[in-house]
Amino acid sequence: MMRYHGNIAVLILCIAVGALPSAHSATTQEDAETELTVIRKIIRTVSSRLASARSTQDTIQKQLRKAELAISRLATELREIEKSLHRQQRQLKNLRHQRNTQNKALITQREELTRQIRISYAMGRQDYLKIILNHEDPSALARTLTYYGYFNRARAEQIEIARSHIARIHALEREIAQGTGTLKGLKRAKIKARSNVQKHLRQRKEVIAKLDKEIARDDQRLAYLKQDKNRLEELISNIKQPFTHSPNQQSFQALRGRLRWPTAGPVRHGFGSKRGLGNLKWQGVLISAEAGQPIHAICRGRVAFADWLRGFGLLMIIDHGDGYMSLYGHNQSLYKKTGDLIKSGEVIASVGNSGGNIEDGLYFEIRHQGFPKDPAYWCRRPTSATRNS
Is 356 helix (H, G, I), strand (E, B) or coil? Predict the structure, then answer.
C-alpha cells in the first residue's frame, strides 16, 4: 500500500518539474489546460491503482478470515468426533465385558441345571406314587414331599435365570452391533473432517501467499502491523461490562508472580523486544507450541471477546476485573464464547497459527487499564522454557 503512495509522490513531482518549463513557454491558455489535463489523468490512474490495491488487501483479509474460521470450526468438530469416538470405544468395551460376564453366568446356570436334571432323573426312576404309598411314617412322608417341592421350584428358578441371561446376552449383542456401526460412522466422519481441514489449510496457504505478495516491502508491513496494533487497542477500549470478582476471592493484582503460563513452550519473542520493523515492539510474548495444544486461562474471569481479528487471528480476551485483561491470539480453535464465565486453569482454546502466520504458537498479553504489562512479572517462571529477548 505504501508503495503506491510513493508512486504518487514521484509521479506528481516528475510531472510538476517537467511541466514548469512548458508552463513558462506556453503561449496560449490551451497549452496550459492540456498539460493540466494530463497531470489530472495520471493522478486519477495512480489513485485508481491505490484504491484497487486497498480493495485487494481487504478481499484477501476476508478470504483469510473465512479460511481460518472454517479451519477452527472443523478442528472443533474433529475434537468432538475424537471425544465421541473414545466414548463409544469405552461403551463397547463395557458392553463386551458385560456380555462375557453374562456368558459365564449362563455356563454356571447350565451346569447347575444339568446337575438338577441328573438328580431329577435319578429320583424319577422311583415311582412317585410308590414313594408316597410306602411311607408309613407321616413325618417322613411330609419331608419327602417338601423336598420334591423345593427341588422343582429350584429347577424352575434356574431355568428362568438361564432364560434371563440368554435374553440379556441377545440384547447386549444388539447394542454391540449398533455401537460398532456408530463407531464406523464416527471413523468415517473423522476421515472426512480431516480431509476438509487439509483442504482449508491449502486454501489458507494460498491466501497467505497472496497477502505476503501485497505487503512484501518493509514499509508496507510496518504500516500493516501498526494498523493491527491500533485495531486491537480500539477493541480493548470498547469492551463494556467489566468483570467483578467476589469479595472472598483474591484479586488479579494479588496473584502477581503466581499465575501459571497459559501453555507450555519456549518464548520465541519476549515482551518489549523489537519486531524488526521501525520502532515497533512486542506488547506481549509469542510462545512456541504445537498446533492443537491446550491453552488455559491464567485466572478466573469473563470472556470479553472471542472472534477473529485481523493480525491476531482467532483471539480471546478475558476480563479479570479491576482493569486487568489477558489476551490469547493466533488460536486454532476457541472453546468459549463472549460472556462465558471462566475458571482459573480452564481450557479455553487450542494453539494454532491463525491470523496469517506460518509457525504455530500462542500470542499472549496481559493488560491493565489498556496498557500492556510484561507477562514474565505476572506468571511463574516456566519450567519448559526461559524468556528470550
Answer: coil
